[in-house]
Amino acid sequence: MPAEPITLCPLDQCPPGEIHAIDAWIDGEVQSLLIWRDGTTLQAFLNICPHAGRRLDYAPGKFLLQDQRLICAAHGAAFRLSDGSCVSGPCRGQNLQAIAIRLIDGMLCLPCSD
Ligand code: FES
């Protein structure tokens, strides 16, 4: 029997133009995810900066946003939310780790990992 997708939250908990943080069980441990919704685009990334491995938020679930870019609260790296790429700062050229998500009946889900 195929495994079921893992439900994260209802889509309407992710307002367009804001970052929504959520904890999810991934690969055997709880991970902090950030979800970005802009129009029809949905992106999910691990809440880990590639520069020094720190969380990106300045307080749990609170993120610095500037012109649709996420600014790491630790040292100011700027990430383009459409693809997670770092466009300025100490890890320019690196990327946030994207996490695959799906929208199923109005719910954001992680695909099953079989
Ligand atoms: S940990 Fe994010 S810029 Fe240094």
Describe this entry's structure for a reader.
With 114 residues, this protein is an all-beta fold. Helices cover 0% and strands 42% of the residues. The chain contains no helices and ten strands. It has strands at 6-10, 19-26, 29-38, 41-46, 64-66, 69-71, 78-80, 86-88, 102-104, 107-110. The strands form three sheets. It has a four-stranded antiparallel sheet with strand order 5-6-7-8, with no helix packed on it. A hairpin with a 2-residue loop joins strand 9 and strand 10. FE2/S2 (inorganic) cluster is lined by residues 49, 51-52, 54, 72, 74-77, 89-90.
- State Rg: 14 Å
Number of helices: 0
Count of the domains: 1
Structural class: mainly beta
Relative helix content: under 10%
Biggest beta-sheet profile: 4 strands, antiparallel
What integer is the average pLDDT?
93
CATH topology: Rieske Iron-sulfur Protein
The amount of beta strand, in percent, is 35-45%
Strand order within the widest beta sheet: 5-6-7-8
Total beta strands: 10
Would you identify the CATH H-level superfamily? Rieske [2Fe-2S] iron-sulphur domain
Q: What are the secondary-structure elements, in order, as H or E? A: EEEEEEEEEE
Q: End-to-end distance, in Å?
A: 10 Å
Helix and strand layout, with pairings?
Elements: E1 6-10, E2 19-26, E3 29-38, E4 41-46, E5 64-66, E6 69-71, E7 78-80, E8 86-88, E9 102-104, E10 107-110
The structure holds FE2/S2 (inorganic) cluster.
Residues 49, 51-52, 54, 72, 74-77, 89-90 line the site of FE2/S2 (inorganic) cluster (FES).
